[in-house]
What does this fold into?
Amino acid sequence: MSQAQLSAATGLDQTTISNLETGKVQSTSKVVQIAHALRINAHWLATGEGEMEGSRPNHLRLAVTEGDAELVDMEVIEGDEPLSHEEVWLPVFREVEFSAGDGCPQVLENHGNQKRFSLTRLNRAGVRPENAALAVAKGDSMTPVISDGATLGIDKGCRHIIDGKVYVLDHSGMLRVKRLYRMPLNRVRVVSDNADEYPEEVYSLADPDAPKILGRVFWWENFD
It folds into this structure.
C-alpha cells in the first residue's frame, strides 16, 4: 500500500505516515485505524508483541440499526483469544450498587467488564474507537424496537440531542434507554417506544435531577 493510499484510508496526512515509516515519529493516536487499513494486529503494530496477523471473525448475526435490518459481521464476540486486527475492546456501562456509603447504585463505565466489538462496524457508523462503549438494555420500555437484554453500541462523542434519536442515560444511578426531543427553555422530552406503559417525561436540563446523557445509541442487537 502506498503512503497516499494509507493516508486516504486513515485520515493521516502523508507527511505523518512518512515520518512514522522513517522513525521520525514514534507513535500516533490512529494506530487502530492504520492496523485496520493494513489488515494487521493493532497490538503488534503498537508494541511489536504477539502475532502480526490475527484471526478474523467469520460469523454472521442479524443486527438492527436505526430500525433497519441488515446482515453484518458478528459484532460482539465472546472468548479469551487475542483480538484480531478487526476487533477492539470496548468498555461496558453497567449499574453497580456499592455496599459502602449510602448503597445507592451508580452507572460506571468498564467496572471490570469489557467486550470485543467489530472495528469495521465502528468505521461504518463513523464512531471513533475511543468514543465507543457498550451497554445492555433492561426492561420493555423500548419494545418492540429494542428488546430486554439487547446489546447497545454507544457513541460517547455524541451527547447533543438529535430529535428522535435513541440515547443511553444515567438517571440518578439508573441506566435508561430513551428517545430524546429538544424543547424550548432548555428542556427535553424523554420518550419510550412502549408509550402505553411508559408515559413521556419532561425535564429541565438545568435541573440537577435531570438524566445525564452518556451517548447516542448507534447500533443495537436483539436476542430471542
